[in-house]
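Second opinion, please. Please look over this fold, written as C-alpha cells:

===
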Amino acid sequence: SSSAASDVYKRQEYGICHNINRVVYVFGNRILGPITQITKTHLTPDVIHLLQEADNIVTEVLMKHDQVKKLSQVPVVLFPITFSPDSTHSIAIRTFITQDFMTGRPAIPGIDFSEDALNEVVVRVNKISNISRVVYDLTSKPPGTTEWE
C-alpha cells in the first residue's frame, strides 16, 4: 500500500538504510528471493509504446487528482526487470519535490502526494500488457539523481 511506501521513506530519511543510492517500494505480492530476470531491451516502437502508455496514465491521474502543481517533476521510468515469467518490464514512478534540482526529496504518499492518486496509478499501470510491477521511487537527492540513468 502507499502507506507502506511512506514507512520505507521514513527509514531511509532517518539513516536506517546505509550505502544505498536508490530506494523503491515495490507494489504487489511479497517478493521471495533475488530478482534475476532482466529483459534484453532495445528502443523499438513496442518498448516506446509501453512507456508512453504508462506515462499517459500517470499524467491523467495527476491531473484528475489535482496533483500536478504540487510536484516539481514526475519521471515515469520503464526498466527491464520482471518479477514474473509472463511479463517483460516494470515501471517506476518518481514524484520529486525540489526548489533547485540540486537537492530534493520524493513526495511522501499521504502527505505530499495523494494516496488515492498513487493507488489509481498502480492499479491502472499494472493492467498494461507486459508490465510486471510498479515501483515507487523514494530516493532523496543526494544520494540519488533526479532521473534514472
Observations:
- The two ends are 26 Å apart (CA to CA).
- The longest strand covers residues 131-137.
- The chain has a mean pLDDT of 89.
- Helices lie at 2-13, 45-64, 115-126.
